[in-house]
Amino acid sequence: MSQRTLVLLKPDTVRRGLVGEVLGRFEAKGLRIVAMDLRTIDADLADQHYAEHVDKAFYPPLRDFVTSGPLVAMVLEGDEAIEVIRALNGATDGRKAAPGTIRGDLSLSNRENLVHGSDSEESASREIKLWFPDLP
Length: 136
Ligand code: RTP
Ligand code: MG
Hints:
4 strands, Nucleoside_diP_kinase, Nucleoside diphosphate kinase, kinase activity, transferase, EC 2.7.4.6
């Protein structure tokens, strides 16, 4: 079943010059770009995006990180895109993520882990509306 999902190439991806490397993996897999935007977000959008995490101890440094510079937000589409992208991204902690995944190959951090992908159909729908309210 074709799905849409929200993907973020977080500020570490942009700072490290890895946008092409990471986006290339999604494109090579066959996922289609439906919307894409480079932007620096404020704390309000960070809080809404990470609503499930705002009360957790790790959140303040996470908020500082995601607002620290430009990121690339995009909507990708394809068969089972939500699960496929979570698998390509790998486990949250780059030190534990499997080799072959984006985080496993390119990140050594639990916070600066390069990518975000929506974790369910409900999250994807909420996040796409939040980041791209005008997308038909
Ligand atoms: P994301 O939402 O960014 O795609 O990552 P995820 O689903 O793999 O992980 P999630 O549990 O949703 O956590 C969101 C982000 O919070 C940071 N984090 N830090 N214990 C910690 O210090 C901790 N746990 C999570 C990570 O940056 C993670 O991507
Ligand atoms: Mg998550």
